[in-house]
Amino acid sequence: MLMVKQWTSDLIGLLFPNLCNACGTALFHKEKLICIKCLHDLPFTDYHLHAENRVAKQLWGRLPLHAAMAMLYFRKGAKVQNLIHNLKYNGKTDVGLLLGNMLGERLKTSPNYSGVNLVIPVPLHHKKLKQRGYNQSMPIAQGIAEQMGTECLEHALIRSAATESQTKKSRYKRYENMQAVFTVALPRQFIGKHILLVDDVITTGATLEACANELLNAGAAKVSIAALAFAE
Ligand SMILES: [Zn+2]
Prior knowledge:
This protein is of the alpha/beta class and 232 residues long. It has 9 helices and 7 strands; from the N terminus they run H-H-H-E-H-H-E-H-H-E-E-H-E-E-H-E. It has 2 domains: 1-41, no CATH class; 43-231, Rossmann fold.
């Protein structure tokens, strides 16, 4: 029976080889999700080592954040885009967990992120959640929480309106709209906590800004931000 199982698994592997989620080449036996070459080539920012990094500077003056960073540079057509595409649209939540683990390993060595005691993913609107079946920021948040030994809550924040139609509005107008879009589901969970808010890719930062404001209004002591990637 065991042999049959092994044979079947080998045959499936032959017909549908495990491919690297970043470059699409077949993975070797010991490689998992991302090939060694791609892992080696990933464009790490090392922002966890620098409090005054470009992500933090982008958000300066907009809200009182404790720390902000992104692990990788996001460039169109590059490997990081493939990884995030697979996580977001191809159901590859294990890619999110793996990258979240890598991110958590970095954050736990960073003094800027010491004392984080709750990890929260940026929520999706429930319609989008139903359509996609999962929130792509959740496995990232779980991977971070695993490494940092902290709690991770999925439904602490609620996104109450879809935001696609807002893309044509000015950044300020968009921010105004976004502010009303998030509500706190479990306010008592936030009081006095250092909360780490997690997103997949940071672009304008408007979504994170609106979420962080809600958490601070609900009594969070500090809010920090970490994302997988930063769109330059
Ligand atoms: Zn690869």
